[in-house]
């Protein structure tokens, strides 16, 4: 059986850099952790106060929707946590 020819691979040459490299500017995200923790604590406090005061506080007119408001604050805390780097 005849031997196949070995193909020579071309050496890699990087493309010419026509652009100047741009510096990546990272924004200061020091606000994320305090806001996230504050939202978590406000949501937790909202739900605890709702149960401890026998549904009279924080807003009596909301009734059981106060639980949804508390979990809304907690969910907002998780939403803010996605900005943490």
Tell me what the structure shows.
It is a single chain. By secondary structure, this protein is mainly α. The chain has two helices and no strands. Helix 1 packs antiparallel against helix 2. The longest helix is centred in the middle third of the chain and has 21 residues, at 32-52.
SSE order and pairing:
Layout: H1 32-52, H2 65-81
Spans of at least 5 consecutive residues with low confidence:
none
Give the quaternary arrangement of the chains: single chain
Order of helices and strands: HH
Helix coverage percent: 40-55%
Tell me the major beta sheet: none
Q: What coarse outline follows from CA principal-axis ratios?
A: elongated
Strand content: under 5%
State the end-to-end CA separation: 61 Å
Classify the secondary structure makeup into a structural class. mainly alpha
The gyration radius over C-alpha positions equals 29 Å
Characteristic key phrases:
single chain; 85 residues; mainly alpha
Write a brief structural summary:
With 85 residues, the protein is mainly alpha-helical. The protein contains two helices and no strands.
């Amino acid at each position: 059986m005849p031997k196949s020819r070995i193909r020579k691979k071309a050496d890699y040459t990087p493309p010419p850099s026509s652009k100047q490299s741009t510096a990546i500017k990272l924004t200061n995200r020091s606000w994320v952790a305090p806001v996230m923790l504050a939202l978590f604590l406000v949501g937790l406090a909202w739900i605890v106060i709702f149960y401890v005061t026998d549904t009279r506080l924080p807003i009596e007119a909301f009734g059981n929707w106060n639980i949804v408001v508390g979990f809304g604050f907690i969910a907002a805390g998780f939403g803010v946590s996605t900005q943490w780097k």
